[in-house]
Design goal:
By secondary structure, the chain is α/β, with parallel strands linked by helices. It has 2 domains: about 240 residues, Zn peptidases (Aminopeptidase, 3-Layer(aba) Sandwich), CATH 3.40.630.10; about 70 residues, OB fold (Dihydrolipoamide Acetyltransferase, E2P) (Beta Barrel). About 25% of the residues lie in helices and about 25% in strands. The protein has 8 helices and 14 strands. Strands 1-3-2-4-7-5-6-8-14-13-10 form an 11-stranded mixed β-sheet, with helices on both faces. A 3-stranded antiparallel β-sheet has the order 9-11-12, with no helix packed on it. Helix 2 crosses helix 8. It is globular and about 65 Å long.
Length: about 325
């Protein structure tokens, strides 16, 4: 939707958050849902927690918690992933908003700056189990300098899922450079969690399950409670925390060179691949082979030429150090 195509609809798309503040000092936590408008398990879970607080079932112990049930109101109203573009690939404030997501960013980014911790709730299209996306290890590099890796690792292990994935932004950035995209496009790939880290906080993306899986709402709800309990915002014990996690690091993005590049089968995220196995075929018949054992992540059979086609991940010992 261009901003001028339906001014009545556009003007009705307000942004809403609900903030609860304890008299006792503590962390400032932000919980977001529906960054992508068709990923609504987080929305349901957030509204359930808000109702629990309002009913006195949950009581704040310390700090501040802010809930955003619907982050991208246009995409949510359309019941689709995006409004005008993908908010979670280019999130930053702008003085010259042109797309609806620019207006979302101009509201959301200052809100994020007022908090220290973010839990962003998502779901995915294909089959698979819930997993958490984590930021980098502590570093002073240019792409994503960071100093709260331990805090993210501890939080990731309490959410109630058993798969831990990192390496997203650095891998994405290498892909952007390889495509020789304009310099400004290097910010493409910065979403909610990346922005939160860039302003001094820490953050996790929880992929709660398949879009239509009714259990995804329960995964999101339990993750919110466990997060607030771990951070001493509400009372209670963490339930169903992970005892052992599969730790994967994304290390490569493979692009589609031509629209007729094809997968050899219907891949799903986290399908195992073995070194030398056939993943797909280029339009000229060149095979695309796995260079090592690992997993395929985010395969997109509908990608266009010169767009990301799939990611590769391998096991990592990060939590064993």
């Amino acid at each position: 939707m261009s901003l001028n195509s339906d001014s009545v609809l556009f003007n009705s798309l307000s942004f809403k958050s609900s903030t609860y503040r304890s008299p006792q000092a503590g962390l400032r936590v932000l919980i977001t849902g529906a960054v992508h408008g068709n990923e609504i398990c987080g929305t349901h879970a957030i509204l359930r927690v808000i109702n629990d607080i309002d009913a006195g079932v949950l009581t704040l112990k310390s700090g501040v918690v802010t809930f955003v049930p619907v982050t991208n109101t246009l995409a949510y109203q359309k019941k689709q992933r995006i409004g005008d573009r993908n908010l979670n690939r280019r999130l930053r404030p702008t003085e010259d908003p042109k797309e609806f997501e620019d207006h979302v960013a101009n509201w959301l980014c200052p809100l994020m700056q007022q908090h220290q911790v973010l839990l962003d709730l998502h779901s995915f299209r294909g089959a698979g189990q819930a997993f958490v996306m984590v930021g980098p290890e502590n570093n002073d590099a240019q792409v994503e300098p960071f100093q709260f890796a331990h805090e993210e690792e501890v939080l990731a292990q309490c959410l109630g899922v058993n798969r831990f994935v990192d390496g997203w932004l650095s891998t994405y950035a290498r892909g952007v450079l390889r495509r020789q995209s304009p310099i400004s496009d290097r910010e493409f790939g910065m979403g909610t969690t990346e922005y939160m880290r860039s302003v001094g906080g820490y953050a996790l993306t929880l992929e709660c399950g398949q879009h239509d899986d009714p259990m995804a709402k329960d995964v999101a709800y339990q993750a919110i409670l466990n997060t607030l309990r771990l951070l001493n915002v509400i009372d209670g014990s963490i339930e169903n925390g992970a005892t052992k996690m599969e730790v994967l690091r994304i290390y490569e993005v493979v692009d589609k060179h031509h629209e007729n590049d094809q997968f050899c089968r219907d891949w799903a995220s986290f399908d195992e691949i073995k070194q030398g196995c056939l993943i797909g075929t280029r339009h000229d018949g060149t095979p695309v082979l796995a260079e090592m054992d690992g997993r395929i992540i985010f395969p997109d059979a509908n990608a266009m030429g010169n767009e990301e086609w799939f990611y590769l991940a391998r096991r990592n010992d990060r939590l064993e150090k």
